[in-house]
Design goal:
The protein has about 150 residues and is mainly α. The chain has six helices and no strands. The longest helix is centred in the N-terminal third of the chain and has 30 residues.
């Protein structure tokens, strides 16, 4: 017996749900950028804001998992160590680096530079995951690089 997909629905329902969630994420991320700029202008320590945000998100997510999916909280010490390092270098490093960049750059420029990650994904996917990028992946990464140069470096 195969494991069912996590999200319910089929075909167009799943596509619409994915588009809606991506769109909402884009809107929220877009609003975060100028909000960060305003926080910095008001003298709020961006590093402290990131720390508080990460602690709050962790607590909220832990409570949600504890109530709704307690079986997903079972983990070995070895895996916990790996997740700790991934969390430190991944989401925390990403968010801290982005929010600090907004202090020094125009909000739009910081956001455009943030979107250089597809280039890194294409270059690192093969050695890290074994997935081989297609010629279209490379073409997309080149377009991203061109967009960043045109937007930020002018």
């Amino acid at each position: 017996m195969t494991k069912k997909n996590f999200s319910p629905g089929k075909g167009a329902d799943r596509t619409f749900k994915g588009i809606a969630l991506s769109g909402m994420t884009g809107i929220l991320w877009g609003l975060t950028t100028p909000a960060t700029k305003l926080l910095a202008r008001e003298g709020v320590s961006i590093s402290l804001a990131v720390l508080i945000r990460m602690l709050m998100v962790s607590l909220i997510l832990w409570v949600w998992l504890r109530l709704c999916h307690p079986h997903q909280l079972k983990i070995t010490r070895r895996d916990l160590k790996r997740i700790f390092w991934f969390s430190l270098l991944g989401p925390t490093g990403l968010y801290l680096g982005f929010m600090l960049s907004v202090e020094y750059l125009e909000a739009a420029s910081a956001l455009v530079l943030h979107y250089t990650y597809p280039i890194v994904t294409v270059l690192c996917s093969s050695p890290v995951t074994g997935e081989r990028p297609t010629k279209w992946d490379f073409a997309g990464a080149c377009l991203v690089a061109l967009g960043v140069v045109c937007s930020v470096m002018t």
